[in-house]
Amino acid sequence: xxxxxxxxxxxxxxxxxxxxxxxxxxxxxxxxxxxxxxxxxxxxxxxxxxxxxxxxxxxxxxxxxxxxxxxxxxxxxxxxxxxxxxxxxxxxxxxxxxxxxxxxxxxxxxxxxxxxxxxxxxxxxxxxxxxxxxxxxxxxxxxxxxxxxxxxxxxxxxxxxxxxxxxxxxxxxxxxxxxxxxxxxxxxxxxxxxxxxxxxxxxxxxxxxxxxxxxxxxxxxxxxxxxx
Length: 228
Fold this sequence. Notes:
This protein has 6 helices and 7 strands; from the N terminus they run H-E-H-E-E-E-H-E-E-H-E-H-H. By secondary structure, it is α/β, with parallel strands linked by helices.
């Protein structure tokens, strides 16, 4: 499982104007249904839902399911547009004075970081301004945790993002999917679809995940510190 590319050492002050102009120029060509408005005066953040394209109903792609709920909450569920520069689906949404860039990679999980890093470069974002949403084996279904940076903890999508962004500072929303009893069942569990009983829990879980990440972004948009 490999990854590549780098957006390391990004300076927010020097990168942002160039990144914003590049994003406006490229997305105006690549996004037929989404036009970048002038940037709002507040912060800009990106939220990336990690997963495997074409497998949206699996436990491993629960991060993409959270992004779908986030888009519905923000009123941009019909605004997803494929961008070939990032190899991802993108949607833009306002959040108060801030702007959110929602991203669903169209590369496999172990190469998600290439899409995330490319979008971060286009929009002039540092690693600290990029949220990752992903599945977590070591938490039961229904448990959520917001982790502020750190190691990949064995998650290949996160490992790819760390490598491509050349940083481990990204905040991460970890969505519990539970670990099976037998180690040999882990791969089938992760790549499998949620059971009917689990699917009944998903709507509430996705709502709670959306609340958690929006509240955290609102708090950070109001001040300079990275709070818990």
